[in-house]
Amino acid sequence: MIADRFIPQIALADGHVSTNERPLVTTPALVGFFFSFRAAIVLIAVRWFLMEPQTGAAAVLAIDFALLLIVAFQAIGKAEQSLRRIALIPSFRWVAAYLAFAGCSFAWSGAVSLPASFLYWCGVVADVAIVVLILRAGRAEVVAHSVIKGFIASTCVLATIAWLMPAQADLRLGDAEYLNTNQIGNLCAFAVLLAQYLMSRGDRKWGLTAGFLTVTLVRSLSKTTLVAFLLSEGLLFIRDKTMSRRTKLLIMGAALAVGLTFWGLYESYYDVYTTAGNQAETFTGRTAIWAYALTAAIAKPWFGNGFDALWKVMPPFGVDQFEARHAESELLQQFFAYGVTGVVLLIGVYGSLFRRIRKLAPGSMRTALVTILVFVMIRGLAEAEPFDLLLPLWTITLLSALIEVELRSMEVASAPVGQNMSHLLSRRNATI
After folding, report:
1. How far apart are CA 205 and CA 213, in angstroms?
2. Is the CB of residue 244 less than 8 Å from the CB of residue 216?
3. What's the pTM value of the predicted model, to 2 decimals?
4. Strand locations in 332-420, DSSP E?
5. Model confidence over 411-429: pLDDT tens digits?
6. Which helix (H) or strand (E) covers residue 249, if one does?
7. Based on the number of CB atoms within 10 Å of its own CB, is 414 exposed (0-12), middle (13-18) or buried (19 or more)?
8. In which band, very low, low, confident or very high, does the pLDDT at 168 lie, cut at 50, 70 and 90?
9. How does pLDDT run across 272-303, given as a tens digit for each residue?
10. What are the structural domain ranges in the chain?
11. Dist. CA 398–CA 316, nearest whole Å
């Protein structure tokens, strides 16, 4: 299995791992694998096993809660870092505030099915809780890198599945109902960005993997994701001073070759898009969704319409009767769901993370993290998530912990010689 290939690498990535510690790196890898692969579980349930979509969705939640129980069991006992110290991370406090307010919004939510929506909220909370518990149980860098590697491995599996599936009528990869091209493109782009983060930390073996996922992203024809990816990668290309000129020339040559390879496909897709594109794809369709969501948001400006209040409430658009799952804009989605409070929370979550990134020393790690934020911000202009943020809350929690590790290292390195170094080192080992 692919997961088995990645687990030994994860165990050795941060140094020597004893036999007793191995579950603490294996479980995070499986968690990361699930965080990506769950995008295909409903597709597998419906297309392969001929089940109802609700069964696949229930399976996703059941696995999520089962992983939470497993991680909670492993976290029992002596902790590498206390929950209190994790709770002191500024970005995590904003994540907790966002989740708490989303939960409170059920008191006024316009969701069609409050019990079902509540389970989805519990799933988002479970994701964050899983990450918090694995950070408590093991060293932050070891477990976080394990989650990231598991996520990348899983995305490679999904990319392979996408290539094997028949193309949609509009030539794009994926299944329009259960694993659409935007999901495939976003997972591939996000996995590439995480691979670049690992490479910024000295783990250079992810080049071919990133190349495969990038080609899959290009082939997916996910327009918004491609634009966001190209612009964010352009920033990385310019800002990363550790990348040699030869490497940059090779990347430029490879990008040109991929572009020429798929040029004919893009021309054919453009013809389909301009003559037979459905309401979900066209700019006209999105502006209609934006207009409805904005009007509904203004009607309840302070606290919004509540968690999952748009699904089956917004009227279908166009001759194809497209039903929007979200507001097709992250800022507008938060305004619709939680009003002005949601906008403040969105700015607080991303702003807090950005402020911590800015405290990092200039270098490839800081550039890689800024690239992730830029990708999310650009994609958020025309995309959103119904339950979570485009940069998932579990990811924000994970990256925040890694940033705190690096900031502690900087604090220790910059301390004057003889100034209670043993105390500083003990603080570094005891905190994230």
Report:
1. 14
2. no
3. 0.89
4. none
5. 887 766 555 555 545 554 4
6. helix 245-261
7. exposed
8. confident
9. 777 765 555 555 567 888 888 999 999 999 99
10. 2-430
11. 37
